Structure to design on (57 residues):
């Protein structure tokens, strides 16, 4: 279950990054969105796993 939560959050981050990257006209801003979305997805995955572990006891 932990791996599924992290994978799902990372996949969502990559999907958001792709949309932002291809819809932004400014190259530097597009690169920033790409990196921050992927890192945000990874961080969200870690938070979800921590919450899941805490709820499981």
């Amino acid at each position: 279950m932990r791996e599924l939560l992290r994978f799902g959050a990372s996949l969502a981050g990559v999907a958001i990054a792709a949309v932002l990257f291809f819809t932004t006209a400014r190259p530097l801003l597009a690169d920033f969105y790409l990196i921050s979305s992927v890192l945000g997805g990874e961080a969200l995955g870690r938070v979800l796993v921590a919450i899941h572990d805490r709820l499981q006891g």
Q: What stands out?
A: The first helix runs from residue 2 to 23.
